[in-house]
Every structure is written in C-alpha cells, then in structure tokens.
Design goal:
The chain is an alpha+beta fold. The chain is built from 5 helices and 5 strands; from the N terminus they run ααααββαβββ. The strands form 2 sheets. A 3-stranded antiparallel β-sheet has the order 3-4-5, with helices on one face. A two-stranded antiparallel ribbon has the order 1-2. Strand 3 and strand 4 form a beta hairpin.
Length: about 140
C-alpha cells in the first residue's frame, strides 16, 4: 500500500502542476513577460541582434492589439501587428536602450478568442536626445 501511495502522490502533484502551468491565465502571463523581454534593448547591442526580436514579437502578438494606457494617452488605440512590428523596428534603429520590467498584474481576463490584461510596468526608453518614457506605467 505504501509503495503505491508515493507514486500516486507524485502523479497527482505533476498533474496539478500541469493544469496550473497550461492554464490560460498562466499562458497569458508568460506571453506578457516574453513581450517585455523582447522590448528590452540593451545599450550597445547590435541593430541586427535587436531586430531578431521581431520574430519573438510576432509570436506573442495577435493580428490586432488594443492598447489602453491612462498614463500615456498617445499609446491608446487599436493597432495591426504589422504596425507594432514597424514601431519595434524603428526603436531598434534609434534607441540607445530600453528596459521594461513587469511590476505586477492588476487583472487578467481570458475569453474564447481574446485576452484582456492590465498590468503595471516600470519602463525606460532612452533615445539619443531624450527619454520619452521613464517611470511606472499602467
């Protein structure tokens, strides 16, 4: 009896972890983190290396993305994936460095064909002549 109990407990733990790991909410959290990692461009990195991030960016974006930011009104709108890829490419060319660090999720709602995510991000975007972003953004 004791010999069968240990593998059964291990199996239940593995199944529980699998259910949690592959849950829609956890998948969305991982995609947001991957997006922020892709948007982070280190100072001194090559343009070619930076632009390779377009493949990662394409993998996490849907065909249309709606951005709503109460702290950066100019960022609000519905954008096609190609538009966002173009902006990313432009940033790769001109930015000195960018850092995007997730501060926390406020809400995640996963529907049948879409997800709505509200999160806080600590962001720095440094261009050659100014910093258009430096602080905490929603």
């Amino acid at each position: 009896m004791k010999k069968a109990l240990i593998p059964l407990i291990v199996l239940v733990l593995i199944a529980g972890f699998g259910l949690w790991w592959f849950s829609p909410t956890q998948q969305v959290k991982r995609r947001v983190q991957q997006l922020l990692n892709t948007l982070t461009l280190e100072q001194g990195s090559s343009k070619a290396g930076r632009k390779m991030g377009i493949y990662s960016l394409s993998a996490v974006l849907s065909d249309q993305v709606e951005l709503v930011s109460p702290t950066i009104e100019q960022a609000n709108g519905i954008f096609e994936r190609a538009e966002l890829e173009s902006v990313y490419s432009w940033l790769c060319d001109i930015t000195v460095r960018s850092e995007f660090e997730l501060s926390g999720f406020e809400s995640i709602a996963v529907g049948e064909s879409e997800a709505r995510v509200e999160f806080l991000v600590q962001a720095v975007v440094e261009l050659p002549d100014h910093r258009p972003a430096d602080g905490l953004y929603q």
